[in-house]
Amino acid sequence: MRRVNTLATAAEAGRHQREWFAGLRERVAAGEPLAVVNADVPHEIFRAMDIPYVVSQWWASVVAAKQRSGHYLELLRRRGYPDYSEQYNAVTLGSAFDPDPDDGPWGGLPKPSIVVGDASGDVTRKIFDIWGREPGVTFYPLESAAENEVPANWWELMPHRWEEAVGPARLDLLTAELESLVRFLETTTGRQLRESRFREVLALVNEQEEWNRKTRDLIARTRPAPISVADGIPSVMLPQWHRGTEWARDAARRFYEEVRERVDAGQAACPGERARLMWIGRGLWYDMGFYQRFQDEYGAVFVWSMYLAIAADGYIRYGDDPMRALAARFAAFTDQLYTPPWSSEWYVKEGRLHGIDGVVHLVSDDPRGSYFTARALESAGIPVIEIEADNVDTRTYDGDGVAGRIGRWLEDTVLTRAARAAGPGPR
């Protein structure tokens, strides 16, 4: 595995995450409830109610980084469940079946008393259903609605005109479901949602994402890129799991300031940058060095991933009704990333904003509109290569084979096109 350069903010976020998780384990051991929630669930409610929670996909990323996903998938297989479908959530479910849970990464995931997931697909719903059958665990599902009308340039509407972007029917449904979730949590845990605290959490999230937007825009306009996605993903994503805290808000500000300092000092991820690449898909958590391996040989830099970009465009919501504003943050979240034309038009916008020369698209067994994404980008003149692998299941990944394919694609397609576009002289 290649070395991954680390920003100071990434190292700080990593330290904070370990300290936070150790504290969470202590709280659960002392008798507090633990919730395991999906990434698309409004975490802000749990934050405002001071209910400890772990994000299913975050835990799966830790397991994959520690090369332990095969162990948890084997535990699923022993119980007769598929080990080859929706591994991003299935890996975390497998940890519930570990006979030695304390041997897991970071001391292991404590047993939750509450699991919450959105029904964004049949498989995801079934995974959480199985979890809810475990003794002492209650599953609370949230619906996933759709809308026929798709707004153009939704990213411009979302901060203030989200009612127009998402539609009143979807907002009515999710607002009612979130209010029911609050009542369930209050009854189950004995904790109350105070509106003043709730508003404070939502305001902190908006502040955090405004900083992320500034960072995204700074990276997009800087040549050569000041950081690669391998540098930036930890700096943006670990604070994202702590949305609604002062620490997360301040971490996003420090991330911007660190990138700004690199830009002002003329530092670059690859001083000899020849091509700017876009990574579409979930993080390749078991091989984060992948994103840097093409810099030295080809001068090709991954400057974009969805994590900073969706933080910039997908979360900011202003409004007087806090619960409805929170519903607006998540009612169309899956659409923004995976459902065309919501997603495909956004990827094209981001590709143009960042001056992308080529796109590497990770396609798992659940492609979620991958055909339309590739078609939209290629129609916009941006070449795309698809690689098939699951981002937490190493069994699906041939690192050398993937690197070879991308290297040939860079030589045959991307670098020649980028050189023609740059014209004579330094790019």
UniProtKB/TrEMBL annotation:
Superkingdom of the organism of origin: Bacteria
UniProt cross-references to InterPro entries, sorted A to Z: FldB/FldC_alpha/beta
Pfam families: HGD-D
UniProt-listed Gene3D superfamilies: 3.40.50.11900
PANTHER family found in the cross-reference section: 2-HYDROXYGLUTARYL-COA DEHYDRATASE, D-COMPONENT-RELATED, DEHYDRATASE SUBUNIT MJ0007-RELATED
Assigned protein family: Belongs to the FldB/FldC dehydratase alpha/beta subunit family.
Stated name of the protein: 2-hydroxyacyl-CoA dehydratase family protein
